[in-house]
Design brief:
There is one protein chain. The chain is mainly beta. The protein has one domain (4-194). It is built from one helix and 14 strands; from the N terminus they run βββββββββββαβββ. The protein has one helix at residues 165-174; strands at residues 4-10, 18-27, 31-35, 40-43, 45-49, 52-55, 64-68, 91-95, 107-112, 118-127, 142-150, 180-181, 187-189, 192-194. A six-stranded antiparallel beta sheet has the order 1-2-11-10-9-7, covered by helices on one side. A three-stranded antiparallel beta sheet has the order 4-3-12, with no helix packed on it. The protein has a three-stranded antiparallel beta sheet with strand order 5-6-8, with no helix packed on it. A hairpin with a 2-residue loop joins strand 5 and strand 6. The model is unreliable at 1-14 and 164-195 (pLDDT under 50).
Length: 195
């Protein structure tokens, strides 16, 4: 199954636009970049156990620092991501929706080390592929998640509506973007192969 990141645009000129989308089948260790074509944020993760993963800052071959948004259950609760305790090292383990009592996965924030632009990931699913035993099949370790990227460089995501699943499905058929490096697959977007 090809990896996919779908995007949409929200916001107004006065508050800055926010790009948003989904990661489908993001392989463990693969680096993803989300951005507006000028600035970006790099993201990386690895498996811990079924439903849990580690998330990395710039000490592991990316150009962004990482933080956990403790207690956040909706993107609208993130009003000042710059105040989070960012690190260049690994954080975690943090869990997906199945690991959470309320059915909402954890929120991870990345901040570009020089531009300061920020992106948020909600962890929707982490699957080991094998689901049993101590030796996980790393080729099958996949993350599904929703992301948001603030184009104005601020850490305020409070005005972002969360679209319904139906809206996301229709967006997937119309608009998409994906940038994958280091061992991750290309993706099919609107009938075109992107590598």
């Amino acid at each position: 199954m090809a990896a996919l990141a779908c995007i949409s645009l929200t916001g107004s000129a006065s508050e800055g636009a926010v790009l948003t989308g989904t990661f489908v089948d993001w392989r463990e260790g693969g680096i993803r970049e989300v951005g507006d074509g000028v600035n970006h944020v790099s993201m990386r993760w690895s498996i811990n156990t079924l439903h849990y993963g580690w998330f990395y800052g710039r000490d592991l071959d990316i150009d962004s620092d990482v933080a956990y948004a403790a207690g956040v259950r909706s993107i609208n609760q993130i009003t000042n991501a710059a105040s989070l305790p960012f690190t260049r090292q690994a954080i975690g383990p943090y869990g997906d929706a199945a690991a959470a009592a309320d059915g909402v996965g954890d929120f991870i924030v990345w901040r570009h080390a020089t531009s300061g632009h920020m992106a948020v990931l909600r962890i929707d699913d982490i699957d080991t592929g094998l689901n049993t035993g101590p030796n996980f099949g790393h080729d099958d370790d996949l993350l599904q998640g929703r992301w948001w990227y603030q184009t104005d460089g601020s850490g305020d995501f409070s005005s972002i509506p969360e679209p319904s699943a139906g809206v996301l499905i229709s967006l997937a058929s119309v608009v998409g973007a994906c940038k994958v490096r280091r061992g991750s697959r290309s993706c099919d977007v609107a009938g075109k192969r992107i590598s």
